[in-house]
């Protein structure tokens, strides 16, 4: 059981790091307004988030359920 607790803590830490990196990407895109950032990959975080939200809104009720699940997961983490 101790192993599962450690694994759960490890997964929580990775999730928090991932959310922090996504937030950092959004801030970089806002600050640099699409200019090339030397140490940041050629990925548009804002466009990816907008694409995910757009696909959830196109799916109707299933998208709403998916958005609720994502919100519930993030609400617990933050």
Structural overview:
- This protein is mainly α and about 80 residues long.
- The protein has one domain.
- About 80% of the residues lie in helices and about 0% in strands.
- The chain has helices at about 1-30, 45-60, 60-75.
- Helix 2 crosses helix 3 (about 60-75).
- The longest helix has about 30 residues, at about 1-30.
- The model has no long low-confidence stretch (mean pLDDT about 80).
Primary descriptors:
78 residues, mainly alpha
Short structural summary:
The protein has helices spanning 2-32, 45-58, 61-77. The chain has 78 residues and is mainly α. The longest helix is centred in the first third of the chain and has 31 residues, at 2-32.
Cα distance, first to last residue? 25 Å
What is the string of helix and strand elements? Answer: HHH
Please give the count of helices.
3
Please compute the radius of gyration using only Cα atoms: 16 Å
Low-confidence stretches: none
Largest sheet: none
Number of domains: 1
The fraction of residues assigned to DSSP E strands is under 5%
Quickly give the structural class.
mainly alpha
Topology:
Blueprint: H1 2-32, H2 45-58, H3 61-77
Helix pairs in contact: 2-3
């Amino acid at each position: 059981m101790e192993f599962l607790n450690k694994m759960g803590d490890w997964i929580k830490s990775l999730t928090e790091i991932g959310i922090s990196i996504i937030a950092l990407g959004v801030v970089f895109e806002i600050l640099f307004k699409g200019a090339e950032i030397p140490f940041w990959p050629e990925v548009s975080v804002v466009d990816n988030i907008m694409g995910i939200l757009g696909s959830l809104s196109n799916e109707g009720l299933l998208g709403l359920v998916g958005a609720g699940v994502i919100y519930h997961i993030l609400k617990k983490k933050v």
